[in-house]
């Protein structure tokens, strides 16, 4: 049985993108990137909303001169299945990608039961839907040492969850990783 995980790089004040939609302040250094690569190795399926999918399409090809840590992540991402939930996307442009017009919590529950590998949900809008439906098993944040003052939040404001800390890690650049299991 797979778990559904929601992981994001955020500012200290809890945003995945600033008020202008930028997330350049969140670019991981090599140590953080390598850590994320290892976290993602056991993900068999990524679930994305359209906007997050469009950001992640970058990993479909890797420039020949890409640093090894980026080439490694591209290989991890390319090896996984992807499902994009969008009512506006015409068709996916990446391999191993399926387009769904609506997010069905029952289908995601069934996927978790039938899959041996974990699922990862990307994008705060889609993740909010999954969190409200009680589908997310683990929440994790890589908190970068930046305050951006507003933008797109990591979590919806109307959510209440009991959590249990399951992992933490500090990086030399000041980034902190915190992972929590959602307590049923």
List the helices and strands and how they pair.
Layout: E1 4-11, E2 15-18, H1 30-40, E3 43-49, H2 50-56, H3 68-79, E4 81-85, E5 97-100, H4 105-114, E6 118-122, H5 124-132, E7 138-144, E8 151-153, E9 162-170, E10 176-183
Parallel strand pairs: 1-6, 1-7, 3-4, 3-6, 4-5
Antiparallel strand pairs: 2-8, 7-10, 9-10
Helix pairs in contact: 1-3
Describe this structure in words.
- The chain has a single domain (1-19, 29-140), classed as 3-Layer(aba) Sandwich (Dihydrofolate Reductase, subunit A), CATH 3.40.430.
- The protein starts with a strand and ends with a strand.
- With 184 residues, the protein is of the alpha/beta class.
- It is 27% helix and 33% strand.
- The relative contact order is 0.26.
């Amino acid at each position: 049985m797979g778990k559904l995980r929601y992981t994001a790089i955020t500012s200290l004040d809890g945003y995945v993108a600033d008020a202008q939609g930028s997330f350049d302040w969140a670019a991981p250094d090599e140590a953080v990137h390598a850590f994320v690569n290892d976290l993602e190795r056991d993900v068999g399926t990524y679930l994305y909303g359209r906007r997050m999918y469009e950001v992640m399409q970058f990993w479909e090809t890797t420039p020949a001169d890409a640093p090894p840590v980026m080439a490694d992540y591209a290989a991890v991402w390319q090896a996984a299945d992807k499902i994009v939930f969008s009512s506006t996307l015409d068709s996916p442009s990446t391999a191993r990608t399926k387009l769904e017009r609506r997010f069905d919590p029952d289908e995601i529950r069934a996927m978790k039961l039938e899959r041996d590998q974990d699922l990862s949900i990307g994008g705060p809008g889609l993740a909010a839907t999954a969190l409200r439906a009680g589908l997310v098993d683990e929440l994790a944040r890589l908190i970068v040492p930046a305050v951006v003052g507003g933008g797109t939040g990591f979590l919806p404001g109307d959510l209440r969850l009991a959590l249990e800390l399951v992992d933490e890690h500090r990086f030399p650049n000041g980034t902190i990783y915190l992972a929590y299991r959602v307590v049923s």
